[in-house]
Amino acid sequence: MKLRRLSFVLPILAATKATSTSNCRCLYGQPCWPNESEFAALATQLSQPLLHPLPLPSPCYPPSAPSGYCSDVIANYGNNTWRSDQPGAMQDTNYEVFIFPNKTISACYLNTTLGVPCGQGSVPPVGVDARSGSDIQAAVNFARQHDLKLVVKNTGHDFLGRSTARGGFLVWTHRMKDMLHNATFVPEGAPVTNENTFDGDCALFFLFAFPLTYLLCISAVTLGAGVQWHDAYEFAQKQGRTIVGGVSGGGSVGAAGGWILGGGHSILSPKFGLGMQPSISFILHA
User: Which residue has the higher pLDDT, 229 or 259?
Assistant: First the structure.
């Protein structure tokens, strides 16, 4: 009995120790934060200038002299698609706010009559406008070198607020819109079959004997990290195909992110199955 009790106690103690020694990442404003010359060196490795995201209502401050962009912010504040195009915006505005342990708040409110200054909140102060794999690689290496709190964001559709963090370093993948259609996509390790079960325009193969055999293949589309559902649906339609995807207001949710990792449930699943696939490619249907 003593040994059995120890077997339960020891893992708990080990977990407690691991939690107490967890590493805290470097945040903006701390001495460990990279200096201007280090960020300048990073900028030379990127295809786009560094981002300096601001909270969405910031053009409306100071209230006595708002910029011309303030009217656009007011008009589109509740537009999911428009918000997804802003590196400093989240789809749920509560995640743009930061509450300190003493209950004070850093935020930038659209209602300027509150008389509260526009604060950065939970919006990362600097980031990378990623357009390619090399941009991503440079950003991740930079974050690893300086032990930064790394945040990856496409559209800001995250119910847990994981695509933003106060004092973090942002990698914005929203402009990675590459899409590729392959009518004869062959999944890795796909079997050869003697039945005509493929969905694409695959060629016939002889395997040194009759009958003819077919290499299993399908029609598929590969989507970049910044592709949204409205992009994916329009692209699939041009190919004369249907893609199993998610539903969102204006199709503004990212197509290659959490939806597929969550299993790929769709209103089309009863007919075509789940959208989850073993690769990044999505299966298209006639």
Answer: 229
Which residues on adjacent β-strands are paired with residue 181? 221
Within the chain, what is the greatest distance between any pair of CA atoms? Answer: 83
Hey, what are 121's tokens? 């909140």
Residue 128 to residue 47: CA distance in whole angstroms: 9
Asked if 166 and 206 touch (Cβ cutoff 8 Å), the reply is: no
| CA distances to 138, 157, 195, 285 from 174, in Å | 17, 12, 41, 26
- Cβ neighbours of 218 (radius 10 Å): 21
Q: Is residue 44 within 8 Å of 128, Cβ to Cβ?
A: no
| Residue 180 bridge partners (DSSP) | 222
- Which residues have C-beta within 8 Å of that of residue 238, sequence separation ≥ 6? none
Q: How far apart are CA 106 and CA 109, in angstroms?
A: 10
Q: What angle do CA 167, 169, 170 make, to 5 degrees?
A: 120
- The topology under which CATH files domain 36-172 is 3.30.43
Is pTM beyond 0.90? Reply is no
- How many CA atoms are closer than 13 Å to the CA of 286, on its beta-carbon side? 6
The model's confidence at residue 192, banded by pLDDT at 50, 70 and 90, is low
Average pLDDT of span 8-37: 66
Domain coordinates in residue numbering, the chain: 36-172, 179-285
| Range with lowest mean pLDDT among 117-121, 135-139, 147-151, 235-239 | 235-239
d(CA 268, CA 265): 8
Two tokens at 59?
A: 């053009």
Mode of pairing for the β-strands spanning 98-99 and 105-106 = antiparallel
Alpha-carbon distances, residue 261 vs 137, 254, 274, 280 (angstroms): 22, 12, 11, 10
Residue 251 token pair? 């199709």
**Count of beta carbons in the 10 Å neighbourhood of residue 271:** 10
pLDDT at 182: 87
